[in-house]
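hey
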């Protein structure tokens, strides 16, 4: 029966004390007894949305590699999201040492983990297709297999293997998005990154060393400093463990699945990172040193761009280098230079544009421009003047500062001039001197975009110095 809220199912039971043909007219039905029957509809279209799943995910195929304490939780949450097919891979058998932080029951000891979790999911989610494989991550460096999936989720907690896998993806050009996730011991936190091929931001962005800019072996997302002994050897068993409880593994699974569902639903379109930060009490009790990121981190569960300005895999590789006589350098990515050139005042009526430069201090006197703010509706602009409405520009600086873990910040300004070869005006020089006085601990750079050429300046003890392009 069609009703305004959709299809409604009605059940009635007709009975009579003697045998009679089914009453086809109203007259004949009068002597029958009519009772309602409770109808519970077991159909996919109705049950999926009513129980919190998203029917639009039923055609999605996910490959889940690793189903330990984190992976098994991920499998369950992917299933409950309504994903149509999950292929689970794990090379291990289920052992009792995992019991309290795993979704599997004790009677599944010695089962291959992937098979046991697939069995569990099949029982719980009637319309989910599940397959299990007794393999390892590195067996999946096969482009034809990977490209059949909408998403790969890796929950093996082995950074070296993850980086090898990522190397393969970069080299082979397989366009499959991957979520990597891991937790740190002692309840300190966990991390998940979504790496969408072709988008800025990749797994290696999470491994750029904050100070040197080179690729490291420990993730820059981590809260525990590397090269410390974080494993424990419990008496009586030869294996070493990183101590963590089920709350840590479930929490880590949740941030990973949140990324997975967000991506599959089309809500997340750029490479993203998420961390959750826990209490430091246990780690401190163990005498472990925590990273500066732990101290400054205030964005638990928030999704931020994964992109790291210094990543040598996914970030711009073509720069224009400007240098001053005193050795100050500015690196401007070609892509940003092209974007700046779009603001050139080529038409007689075009007004000035301006914004703030956001960048990273490579070394004391070297800056890498990462991005810049662009004119806002609230700015005041004429042919030869420009006044920034500082709040909205400043807000972008603060956002970049927070999401880059305080790596990126204000490094100068840019603006356009309606002259072919730009020269700084007296108001420009006065303005720059004020900026320099407010930021005396580091050099600032000022870009002026003319109609034909672009000039870059810095200040040296109040004097305006022009930088020149370093030939390649
Ligand atoms: Zn990258
Ligand atoms: Zn000017």
């Amino acid at each position: 029966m069609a009703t305004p809220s959709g299809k409604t199912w009605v059940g009635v039971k007709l009975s009579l004390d003697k045998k009679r043909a089914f009453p086809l007219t109203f007259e004949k039905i009068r002597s029958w007894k009519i009772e309602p029957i409770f109808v519970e509809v077991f159909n996919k279209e109705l049950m999926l949305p009513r129980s919190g799943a998203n029917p639009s995910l039923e055609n999605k195929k996910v490959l889940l590699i690793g189903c330990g304490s984190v992976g098994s939780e991920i499998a369950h949450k992917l299933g409950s999201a309504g994903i149509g097919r999950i292929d689970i891979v794990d090379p291990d058998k289920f052992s009792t040492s995992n019991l309290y932080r795993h979704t599997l029951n004790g009677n599944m000891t010695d089962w291959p983990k992937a098979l046991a979790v697939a069995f569990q999911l099949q029982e719980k989610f009637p319309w989910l297709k599940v397959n299990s494989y007794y393999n390892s991550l590195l067996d999946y460096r096969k482009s034809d297999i990977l490209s059949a999936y909408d998403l790969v989720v890796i929950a093996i907690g082995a950074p070296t293997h993850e980086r090898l896998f990522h190397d393969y993806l970069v080299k082979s050009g397989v366009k499959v998005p991957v979520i990597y996730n891991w937790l740190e011991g002692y309840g300190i936190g966990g991390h998940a990154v979504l790496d969408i091929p072709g988008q800025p931001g990749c797994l290696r962005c999470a491994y750029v060393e904050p100070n040197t800019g080179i690729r490291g072996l420990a993730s820059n997302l981590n809260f525990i400093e590397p090269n410390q002994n974080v494993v424990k050897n419990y008496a009586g068993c030869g294996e070493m463990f990183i101590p963590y409880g089920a709350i840590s593994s479930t929490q880590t699974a949740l941030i990973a699945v949140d990324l997975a569902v967000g991506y599959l639903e089309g809500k997340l379109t750029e490479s993203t990172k998420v961390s959750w930060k826990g209490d430091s009490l246990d780690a401190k009790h163990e005498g472990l040193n925590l990273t500066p990121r732990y101290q400054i981190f205030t964005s638990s569960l928030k999704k931020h761009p994964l992109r790291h300005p210094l990543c040598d895999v996914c970030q711009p590789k073509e720069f224009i280098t400007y240098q001053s006589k005193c050795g100050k350098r500015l690196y401007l990515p070609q892509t940003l230079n092209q974007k700046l050139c779009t603001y050139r005042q080529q038409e007689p009526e075009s007004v000035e544009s301006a914004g703030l430069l956001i960048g990273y201090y490579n070394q004391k006197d070297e800056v890498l421009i990462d991005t810049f703010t662009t004119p806002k509706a609230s700015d005041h602009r004429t042919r030869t003047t420009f006044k920034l409405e500082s709040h909205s520009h400043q807000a972008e600086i603060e956002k970049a500062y927070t999401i880059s873990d305080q790596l990126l910040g204000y490094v100068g300004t840019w603006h356009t001039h309606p002259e072919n070869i730009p020269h700084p005006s007296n108001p420009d020089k006065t303005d720059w001197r004020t900026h320099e006085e407010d930021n005396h601990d580091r050099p600032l750079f000022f870009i002026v975009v003319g109609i034909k050429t672009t000039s870059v300046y810095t200040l040296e003890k109040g004097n305006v110095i022009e930088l020149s392009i370093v030939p390649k």
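The mean pLDDT is 92. The radius of gyration is 30 Å.
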